[in-house]
Each structure stands twice: as C-alpha cells, then as structure tokens.
Amino acid sequence: MVNPTQTAERVIVALDYPDETAARQLLNRLDGIPVWMKVGMELFYAAGPAFVVYLKERGFHVFLDLKLHDIPNTVKGGSASVTRLGVDMFNLHAAGGKAMLEAGLEGVDKALAPGQKRPLVIGVTQLTSTSQSVLNDEIGIPGAIDDAVLRYAALTKQAGLDGVVASAREVTGLKAANGAGFVTVTPGIRPAGSAIGDQSRVMTPKEALAIGTDYLVIGRPITAAPDPREALEHILEEMSEA
Ligand code: C5P
Q1: Residue nearest (by alpha carbon) to ligand 1 atom 13
Q2: pLDDT per residue over 122-131, tens digit each?
Q3: Is the distance from CB of 217 to CB of 186 less than 8 angstroms?
Q4: Which long-range contacts (CB under 8 A, 24 or more apart) does 159-162 make?
Q5: How far is the CA of 65 from the centre of ligand 1 (A)?
Q6: What is the pTM of this model?
Q7: C-beta neighbour count of 34 within 10 angstroms
Q8: What is the pLDDT of residues 20-67, one digit of tens each?
C-alpha cells in the first residue's frame, strides 16, 4: 500500500493557464496536497520567473517545462538561470545533441547554491504530436518513431541527464534500455472514465504506476474538473491501490 503523501509527490499538475490569476485559483483549491506543479511556456511567458518563485515559496515542487533547445553556450546559461530560480525539474530537447545536453548540466553545476538540491534534468525525446509521416517526410528523420525515441533517450543517458519525458506506453522499453533508475515523466494520463481530449495514447494513473512510471503529469482531468480537489483526491486514491 503506497502512502498517500508519497503518491501525491509523484503527481505533477500541469498548470496550463494563460495567466497567474487562473493558476492561483487552482493552487488555492489544492492547498495542502504535496503534488508538484508544472509550469509550461504558456504560463511562464505570461507570469514570468516571479511565479515560479511564488510556487516555491508556497512549498510546491516545480517542474519548469520550457524544453530548452539552442546552441550549447546559450543552453548552459538558460539552465543556470532556471537552476537559480530553484526549480526541482526542467527539460532540454535531446535533438540539440550531446554537447548541448552536457552544456545544460554544466550550467546547473555552475549555478547551484551551497546546499541547494540539484534539479532533475530531463530530456525531451520525440514529441508525441509527431506522427510517423511528419518524422520521416517533414523533419527528414528515417525509421520508426519508437526507434527515434529510444535513440534520443540513450543520448540523454550518455550525456548524464536523469531521464526523459515519455508516453507511459514507452516506459517499459525505456527502463529496459536505460536501467530502472532512469527517470520517466509521463503525460497522457487519464483516470478511468475521464475525457481523453486531444491525447491519443493514454493510460490510467494506476496502470502507469504499475509499469514503473516515476512521475505522472496530469492536466485537464484535474484542472478542468468541476471540483479539482475532489478529482485529484480520487486520482490519489486510485494510485494508492496500485
Ligand atoms: O491536460 P493534459 O493531462 O493532457 O496535460 C498534459 C500536459 O503534458 C500538458 O501540459 C502537455 O503540454 C504536456 N505534454 C504532453 N505530451 C508530451 C509532452 C508534454 O501532453 N509529449
């Protein structure tokens, strides 16, 4: 039986909001539950670094989902800046190559304050919105998407990153190839009976835990629920049965 606090610490709520007011309303509804909060480009570009600092002051773990992708020197600086903000997890596009990924880690090391816990640095493999034909015909990468994902994941591991963002369906293969300690962060989570929306390959929270997913990114099943707190509590209950 998983303890509910430990379970909550594996849920990352996607704060996909256009402004801080809407995000704060959700925080107030979920007060006291030790989930992580994910700030992506929509909210970050609107509310800025101050909102990340605010989340940290309220005691939340923060995943800053900005998917850095640039020349190594720029990514090094960007990674240093997000580390100074005190985030607990952030991500880089594996497509930037090994030197870029390593530069990101150098930026983290350079910026860590004495006693500060090192953030988890996570690779983005192939976006789940990329179809086979987009991969092959538009981007010009040959082969199957699954192979591209495994190749990108291997690169992030070689570069020294902690893990990858991946569909829950990919977790078993990623762990087999990179070891059980390779962190998997998985969106596309839908509690039994909830709306799938624009996600295509979904898994329930219970199934995702059972196959060894480390962190579950959950947005609309919580944020769009009539009672977000009740929706989250229901998810945590389901997870504690895994
Ligand atoms: O609302 P929903 O649960 O679908 O939200 C999932 C979150 O995970 C969104 O913030 C989305 O941008 C993010 N994400 C995703 N698929 C990826 C990477 C990130 O859905 N491959």
Answers
A1: 187
A2: 999 998 888 8
A3: yes
A4: 159/98, 159/101, 159/102, 159/105, 159/123, 160/101, 160/102, 160/105, 161/92, 161/101, 161/104, 161/105, 161/121, 161/122, 161/123, 162/120, 162/121, 162/122
A5: 10
A6: 0.95
A7: 15
A8: 999 999 999 999 999 999 999 999 999 999 999 999 999 999 999 999
